[in-house]
Specification:
binds 5'-O-[(R)-(carboxyoxy)(hydroxy)phosphoryl]adenosine, 337 residues, five-stranded mixed sheet, binds zinc ion
Length: 337
């Protein structure tokens, strides 16, 4: 039996969770800094670091409380070591290493994107390797072939904006507060089905072979559509739906290619945009058509959280793998596959 404390602090969410190998997830405490950064229209790294420092100790106490455990009942600590904001990563890793040293237990550096990809296994225990993962977050858009734990192959990625970034920037032009992705999706979903015909948005890079993506042109297209919307009598809901439709079609087409190319029939959605309802529905019908299966974490485990870090850490720590140094090693950039 092993209990792992997981600590996430790579961007603007502080997460502290406890995973128990026998009982599963015992606690999952989260603090989102969205209100801190909203006034600036994006994440301010220095403010993020200060906020992590403020919240790490209270969240640890909350998680221990939720799990009815004392500090001494934790067997190991996993923390996000990258990629992310260096200052933010330093708060979590210094905290994890110090606590591990004080308690005399091992610690382990976790890759944030690997944790996102493995989050689906927390909610879907029947998910086995190999699988294709569509990783769609605010900072990343990648298609990954996961062969085994620690063995990942990059199949394709965005050549410019990440899909979450495109959602957030499009929301911003339409006057929605940062991060507007989820709200833009809600506007799209609220568009009445008898609305007049939607403007045609491009499906970037579908005419080219390969599994790379590009979303910056789509974002610019949305900007022009929004500027012309009054004269075209288009509503915010219609533009949101046309934009979301183009994103979902593009992602779905590339997922289909990835499944065909690899012969794999298991598809995992990971990352914040994985919470998007239309994307899930489209990928669900795709895998059904292809005789495969779709796996995704609950929406709260799509966005940043400590649970995915605790769980990913557990998978390695239970094999005896841990940091064997007290040195702090965090990385803003850290290739995943
Ligand atoms: O994985 P995540 O929490 O943070 C990063 O590591 O980036 O992803 C956050 C991103 C944001 O861009 C946010 O707008 C987007 O995920 N997002 C959504 C939805 N919920 C969150 N985008 C589209 N539809 C949603 N329902
Ligand atoms: Zn993330």
């Amino acid at each position: 039996m092993m209990r792992v404390l997981g600590i996430e602090s790579s961007c603007d969410e502080t997460g502290v969770a406890i995973y128990d190998s026998a009982k599963g997830l015992l606690a999952d405490a989260l603090y989102s800094q969205v209100s801190t950064h909203q006034a600036y229209g994006g994440v301010v790294p220095e403010l993020a670091s200060r906020d992590h420092i403020r919240h790490l100790v209270p969240l640890l106490e909350q998680a221990l409380d939720e799990a009815s455990l004392s500090r001494n009942e934790i067997d190991a600590i996993a923390y996000t070591a990258g990629p992310g904001l260096i200052g933010a990563l330093l708060t979590g890793s210094c905290f994890a290493k110090s606590l591990g040293y004080a308690l005399g237990i091992p610690t382990l550096a976790v890759h944030h994107l690997e944790a996102h990809v493995l989050a689906a296994k927390l909610d879907c225990p029947d998910l086995n390797f190999p699988f294709v993962a569509l990783l769609v977050s605010g900072g990343h858009t990648q298609l990954i072939l996961a062969h085994a734990l620690g063995q990942y192959e990059l199949l394709g990625e965005t050549v410019d904006d990440a899909v979450g970034e495109a959602f957030d920037k499009t929301a911003k032009v339409m006057g929605i507060a940062y991060p507007g992705g989820a709200q833009l999706a809600a506007l799209a979903d609220a568009c009445p089905s008898d609305a007049p015909p939607l403007p045609r948005f491009p499906r970037p890079m579908l005419d080219r072979p390969g599994l790379d993506f590009s979303f910056s042109g789509l974002k610019t297209h949305a900007l022009y559509a929004w500027k012309k919307s009054a004269q075209d009598a288009l509503s915010r809901q219609q533009i949101a739906l046309a934009f979301q439709g183009a994103v979902v079609d593009t992602l779905s087409a590339k997922c289909q290619r990835a499944l065909e190319q690899t012969g794999c029939r298991r598809l995992v959605i990971a990352g914040g945009v994985g919470a998007n309802r239309a994307l899930r529905a489209s990928l669900q019908s795709l895998v059904e058509k292809m005789g495969g299966a779709l796996y995704f974490p609950r929406p709260a485990f799509c966005t940043d959280n400590g649970a995915m870090v605790a769980y990913t850490g557990y998978l390695y720590l239970s094999e005896g793998i841990s940091d064997n140094t007290l040195a702090i090693d965090v990385r803003a950039r850290w290739p995943f596959a």
